[in-house]
């Protein structure tokens, strides 16, 4: 069995978070809670938190984390490498409103940064 990528920490109570919702055009397939090419916001079901996945230059996917809702260690997005060490893919799970819209260490926080807003 492989070890989970994140530590499990309880959420600060059952709440319906609002998360940034975005899916980069290069990402294929249906992803729950992730919107289309234009960034927006989505209200997550109770117990879920926000997720953000970036490469080093732009957001790939942002939305609700439908896995274990208690796996979100921080109220802010603190990205860590996903997969093997040195990976260019960064992942964060967080439990603050719209917390997945801003990730330190990425060139672009959301898919619309630098675009019309």
TrEMBL record:
Domain of life (superkingdom): Eukaryota
Annotated coiled-coil segments of the chain: none
InterPro entries in UniProt: Snake_toxin-like_sf
SUPFAM superfamilies with a match to the protein in the record: Snake toxin-like
BP-aspect Gene Ontology terms: cell differentiation
Protein name (Swiss-Prot/TrEMBL): AMHR2 protein
Source organism of this protein record: Cettia cetti
């Amino acid at each position: 069995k492989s070890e989970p990528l994140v530590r499990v920490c309880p959420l600060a109570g059952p709440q319906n978070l609002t998360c940034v919702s975005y899916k980069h055009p290069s990402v294929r397939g249906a992803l729950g809670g992730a919107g289309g090419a234009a960034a927006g916001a989505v209200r997550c079901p109770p117990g879920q938190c926000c997720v953000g996945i970036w490469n080093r230059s732009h957001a790939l996917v942002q939305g609700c984390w439908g896995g274990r809702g208690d796996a979100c260690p921080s109220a802010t997005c603190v990205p860590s490498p996903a997969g093997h060490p040195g990976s260019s893919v960064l992942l964060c799970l967080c439990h603050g409103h719209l917390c997945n819209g801003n990730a330190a260490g990425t060139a672009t926080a959301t898919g619309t940064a630098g675009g019309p807003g």
